[in-house]
Design goal:
Mean pLDDT: 96
Structural class: alpha/beta
Shape: globular
Low-confidence stretches: none
Strand content: 5-15%
Radius of gyration: 18 Å
Length: 214
Amino acid sequence: MVEYYNVEDGRIEVIYQGCHPAFKIPKSQETKDQLRRQYNLPQNFILNVGSIEPRKNAFQIVKAIETLDIPLIVIGKETKYSDSIKKYIEERGLQGRIQLLQGFTMEELSTIYAMAEAFVYPSMYEGFGIPIIEALYSGTPVITTRSGVFPEAGGPSSLYVDPQNIEELRHAIEKVLQDSSLRQKMIHDALEYVQQFNDDKIAAQWNALYHTLS
């Protein structure tokens, strides 16, 4: 707004978005196991959620985990971009390790978030990045893009990478998977950070803003 519309910085008030309450509800092991059996999901996996299109950059995750011993689940609406990913998966013999899925209910999706070892989101551009806070509420470590809006959503507990750098992305995934102390700290700190996106706090901010306009 400042750069393209020449709006004075002092006239802008930033109020963030929240996410669906399903992500804020802890999931029991029984619920996770039931969903795992229902959809034949792997015991351990990393997760990406969002429409499967170029700006979301899921192809980079596929390339990054090619030499890692961890399955990848990508959940989202497929586009023509999906075809190139599927072709790469077939050419590299990765069919048993990478799944492109869609069609889950919000309750099922929030459970899958909670089951994941890490949420990997090397998107090139977002207005905010609601999937990031969905992961933080779910107690799932986040790896995302270091520029743009992403650090505002991910907070200080997430790991940040250059979304075009496959080696950097691979290293970040390895770090989260191998360092249990780091994982626990990321989860603990993220749950504290993400409370600012609670509905009551966002509503209070909107209410305060409206009062300044009266």
